[in-house]
Design goal:
Two copies of one chain form a homodimer. Chain A is an alpha/beta fold. Helix content of chain A is about 35%, strand content about 25%. Chain A contains 14 helices and 17 strands. In chain A, strands 7, 8, 9, 10, 11, 12, 13, 14, 15, 16 and 17 form an eleven-stranded mixed sheet that branches. In chain A, strands 3-2-1-4-5-6 form a six-stranded parallel sheet, with helices on both faces. The first copy, chain A, is elongated and about 80 Å long. The two termini of chain A are about 45 Å apart. Chains A and B meet through α2, α6, β12 and α12 of A and α2, α6, β12 and α12 of B.
Amino acid sequence: LKVGLAGLGTVGAAVARELSVKSELLAERSGRSIEVVAVSARDKNKDRGISLEGIEWFENAVALAESPDVDVVAELIGGSDGIAFDVVKTALERGRHVVTANKALVALHGVEIASIADEKGVALNYEAAVAGGIPVIKALREGLVVNRISRVFGILNGTCNYILTNMEATKRPFTDVLKEAQDLGYAEADPTFDVDGIDAAHKLSILAALAFGARVDFDGVYCEGIRRIAPVDFEYAAQFGYRIKLLAIAENSEDGVIQRVHPCIVPINTPIADVNGVSNAVIAEGDAVGQTVYEGPGAGDGPTASAVIADIVDIARGLIQPAFMRPASRLAPLQRGDLSQRVGAFYLRLGVLDRPGVIAKVTQVLAEQEISIGSFVQRGVTEDGAVNVVIMTHTTTEAAFGRALSAIESLSEVVEKPCKIRVEDF
Amino acid sequence: LKVGLAGLGTVGAAVARELSVKSELLAERSGRSIEVVAVSARDKNKDRGISLEGIEWFENAVALAESPDVDVVAELIGGSDGIAFDVVKTALERGRHVVTANKALVALHGVEIASIADEKGVALNYEAAVAGGIPVIKALREGLVVNRISRVFGILNGTCNYILTNMEATKRPFTDVLKEAQDLGYAEADPTFDVDGIDAAHKLSILAALAFGARVDFDGVYCEGIRRIAPVDFEYAAQFGYRIKLLAIAENSEDGVIQRVHPCIVPINTPIADVNGVSNAVIAEGDAVGQTVYEGPGAGDGPTASAVIADIVDIARGLIQPAFMRPASRLAPLQRGDLSQRVGAFYLRLGVLDRPGVIAKVTQVLAEQEISIGSFVQRGVTEDGAVNVVIMTHTTTEAAFGRALSAIESLSEVVEKPCKIRVEDF
């Protein structure tokens, strides 16, 4: 099986290295020899710690995708559009199998490229796009194939999980820990995609498409990042027996599927609360199997290469299946549920002026929306003269809580934007 | 794809039901209609909550395996020999694909039947044989295919995990909790296979064959059950920050692979310590991916049917691969490592007479084997006049500890068989 690698960054180089070092092992295990015959990257002379001898070099990755010598194109460039999209589209149109680690591409153009793959009878595999080295796409497409999935959720962004884990452990603010994550290579120079939840939303939309048998609906994901979380939130959460995680959740509700990415307060004794650092975890709930949990490294060269090569070996073994379990032409649009009808409890931290009557006003607003208060904590005056007030509500609807929050925000005594975190009792 | 079900117990009936109820879903997802055309069981008239209309009935399961109308035989009878073995062998010899949930059969005859499958070019799939509904065979055979596995371990017997979880929670003795597990249907009338670790050893030997690319070596599994664990052991373990689990562990050592099933003391804050009740968990350590964790229901009709049907769908999709990743003829015997060279710490509980000098004797024996003591707890006199002494050693070898234990057991002041538990710091 002849493989062309489009992209030789750290992941591409790791794939090349593993395919070379383990060529004998893979030939034994897959019944077929797998060989890198072509590569494409920007700089031919960069030292990547791998030998490119005997491998055809392409300046232009699209030309690699057009090469008749290649059976499988592994797209490891990244980005939802531009060259990555061109490479994948071209390769599929020429009847080459495609393996990609590109979650943005699959989230935004998954169904379009899956249609081409269907038409040409080739594979479009993307295990590495979600949860790194954990074979969770395989679990959903194959291992749980008979299950109707009611919910799939998890920790899908290692950068955010690293930041939250370290904010909790060291009580330092978001910006400090982000800086550290950037220095360690766990966060990009522009961290927007990670810390604003977009990367997790890309991955969630892919999982949801598989789980609910519909077209990928990235635009339908409600998305909230972790920038507003402060060290004090971990302390309050711990007092109530909770921990803070950025979760990605897709679940069937009465009127359709709700997809959402946002910080959550989860009980300390649940499995998801113990997923720390750059790890990822996915939990799927199926009608036949019940709940299964998949956990491991969500990023990094080795884990990503492991998933990319598993996808290549599936092709070597002759497993060619539709990208989203059924032909793309038969995928219906995802029926969206109404988030405003979601019922749950909320954590709310307010910075208020230390004046008589403030608490009465806040609690009055909540009472007007029929929201009961589970816990209430008020702390001494902070440096800037404000008082931290933390409220844990009983269950209410998103709609009612949203109305209450607007009213609270408009109180003149509320001096900073409130921090709300949903409580999830999985 | 025409399926014959050999065995219509609770699992067989669940497979028939799911295949019938989800026939449309499965046809969409697998691109092929999958139909039960033949069944075999003892009593035709028993009410199983499923319709057998239009399905050929076989009194004799071997005759079902011989039927030319069947493409896939699902063996759901159980037992390592006898009729289950005959059915599988016959089906494979006739060129039918086989799916089985039978861990004893695969553990004892896996390579023999895999050879027949290879020869006939058919599949032998056994996802349900290990860890119930968790797709862990698929993870090892496919998802982690490029990895050299250094260790695979986990909680593979839900009955033992249920018993240990409940002994810890309720402080009741083993026999009481076993009785309860039997009443709830979590343990068999004859619990030997479960509580003595044999079932876990069956499953471990299958995982080890896959992980280390060798023939299944059930006889090479060191196996110790949970009958000697007492409620007091959970209390002592908790004092030291530990919990007790029956683990199955296969790992590469210097001279080969050590396979072992025995109670372990594990730190409370590790993921494996939080796997409770009838759940199973498998952790695999690969050189490319690092550590991945798989957790979920290890038994039950629904989870088992989920795995059996996933195996059938793989066949429907055309994925036919050797049972143990490479052809059976090319599987070498598992090179066994030497357990006596294993290095680790031990928990040891002794019942000793309340006499001067006993502790001096015990500690002298340990010192002679150069075993240092990490913690030492002695409790007041028990009802029968003995004193409970609990020792946590520092790391030592199995061999040295074994010699010390023999010497301690032969002391006249040691009045009951000591309880030793290995400490594992994963």
